[in-house]
Specification:
By secondary structure, the protein is of the alpha+beta class. The chain has helices at residues 14-22, 63-69, 156-211; strands spanning 2-10, 33-43, 49-58, 75-85, 90-97, 104-114, 140-150.
Length: 212
C-alpha cells in the first residue's frame, strides 16, 4: 500500500475554487475523463450540498501495470462523493474506483478550505455559489491524499510506486484544469457585466430622450 499526499494553494477565494471544482469536467487538461453523470444531489437540513457522481474515464494506469495485472479494458468507472459546507467553508471530495477493484484500488480525498492566514468572511445560505464580489486577494488551500493498493501480484510495491507517480502527475493537471475553469468563469462574468452595463446605458439614454 502507498499513501500519497499533497498540498496546494490557489490564489482565488474559496467560493471561486469550489464553484470551479464542481464544473471541472470536461476540460482539456484531463481528457481521460470522458463522461460525468450526477447520480444524486441534495441539500441536507443543515444546508450542506451533497453530490454523488459517476465518472467514466480512460484510467491513467501505466502500461506496465495494465500488462502485469492483465487489464485489457481501458474504460473504467470512478464514484465520487462530495460535501460542501457553505457555513464552515469546506468542500470535501472522496473518490474511489469501482472497476478492477479485485486488482487495484485507489481511494482519494480532497479538502478545499480558505487559507488559514486569510480573514474569515461571513457567508450565508448558498451565497458561496456566487464569487463575483469576493476579495480577489483571498486564497484557498487544497489538501489531497490517495491510498493506492495493488493486489495479487508479487511486484505490488513497485506497481504502487508507478501509480503514485501517475496520480501526482494527474493531480498537477487537475490543478491546471481548475485554473482553466476559473479563467473561463471569470470571462463569462465580465462579459455578462459588460452586457448589463451596456443595456443599462441604452435604457437610460432612451429614458432621457423620452423626457425631452
Amino acid at each position: 500500500m502507498k499513501i500519497w499526499t499533497s498540498e496546494h494553494v490557489f490564489d482565488h477565494p474559496w467560493e471561486t475554487v469550489t464553484t470551479a471544482a464542481m464544473q471541472k469536467y470536461p476540460n482539456p487538461m484531463n481528457p481521460s475523463v470522458i463522461g460525468v453523470d450526477v447520480l444524486d444531489r441534495h441539500i441536507d437540513p443543515s444546508g450542506k450540498l451533497h453530490s454523488h457522481r459517476l465518472l467514466s474515464t480512460e484510467w491513467g494506469m501505466p502500461s506496465i501495470v495494465k500488462s502485469l495485472i492483465g487489464a485489457c479494458r481501458t474504460k473504467t468507472y470512478v464514484q465520487e462523493h462530495s460535501v460542501v459546507d457553505p457555513v464552515k467553508k469546506t468542500m470535501e471530495l472522496k473518490s474511489s474506483n469501482i472497476s478492477f477493484t479485485n486488482l487495484v484500488s485507489v481511494d482519494e480525498r480532497l479538502i478545499y478550505k480558505p487559507h488559514p492566514q486569510e480573514p474569515e468572511n461571513a457567508i450565508s445560505g448558498l451565497a458561496w455559489l456566487s464569487f463575483c464580489h469576493h476579495d480577489a486577494t483571498a486564497r484557498t488551500i487544497l489538501t489531497q491524499e490517495a491510498i493506492i493498493s495493488v493486489k495479487g501480484v508479487s511486484v505490488s510495491s513497485y506497481l504502487e510506486g508507478l501509480m503514485e507517480n501517475t496520480i501526482s502527475s494527474n493531480a498537477n493537471k487537475g490543478r491546471e484544469a481548475l485554473e482553466w475553469v476559473i479563467s473561463k468563469l471569470n470571462a463569462e462574468i465580465e462579459e455578462f457585466t459588460a452586457s448589463a452595463r451596456g443595456s443599462m446605458r441604452t435604457s437610460m439614454a432612451a429614458a432621457a430622450f423620452v423626457e425631452k
